[in-house]
Amino acid sequence: MMFLTMLAGSLVTKTGSAMGCGNDWPLCNGKWVPEYTLESLIEYSHRLITGVAGLVVILFSIVAWRRFRGNAEVRALAMIGLFFIILESLLGASAVIWPQSSAVLALHFGFSLLAFSGVLLLTLFVLQRERRDQYVRQPVSRRFRNLVWGVAIYAYGVVYLGAYVRHTGSSMGCNEWPLCRGGELIPELTGQVAIHFIHRLAATCLFLLLLVVLVYAFRYYRQERRDVYVASLLAFILVALQVISGGFVVWFELHLYATMLHSAIITCLFGILCYLCLQSLKQPQAVQQERKAPEPEFARQVAPLTKI
Asked: How many domains, in total, are found in the chain?
């Protein structure tokens, strides 16, 4: 549901449907059922998907909180998912009611990413809880942990810059790829060209940083920390695909499929980076102690029902 919310939001931006419901919220042009125009249907569908996703996330967070009562990781992830999906919804509503600058609008995608990542990490916790002691056999070094967190923070900045490119209409500031304009490697940095070119440079640096992360994980954690190694490998594959999809956006001149693919890949990439950050904090002793801890009363009551 959260991934669909991300795609629906990107579709609104790519098709220019942000004002498909006018300045009304939660109504659409003063009606609960919108008019049958393409922009109205796209914008209203986005609102509907976001609303349903919000209810699903709230229910999932409450159940996970009760099921793993006392687990600090679950509490933190549930609060992150809830907080950012509410913040994203409020920011989206304010963007409809009060016109905002491109710099503020670019925050919308970033907050959506954080909400998606919080829900993704909580989901992975539930799915991997019985096997975590198999993954976390040794702690990672402080150097690697700092590297991973630094790259994740930097990636968030790259994502924001990409959203800013889109909201300022600079997606074709460089109308060639991998060169910029007229076969220039380094163009004259003015206006939309500068915004687009800086984003390309930032994405290239992210590619190189994730290559360093992969090499480090391959050398030191390929056997004892498969979770870290596999996440590093997936992150590098996704950033490579992201760079290529950026070329598709330029080659196909902002074709909808190319731009949607670009947004989908960066969503998956940032989710993997957040997972890598979380796993870099795990300690074998803490995981084993948590596994040995008695289940809460709620869990013991639910266990027989799940078997049935």
From this structure: 2
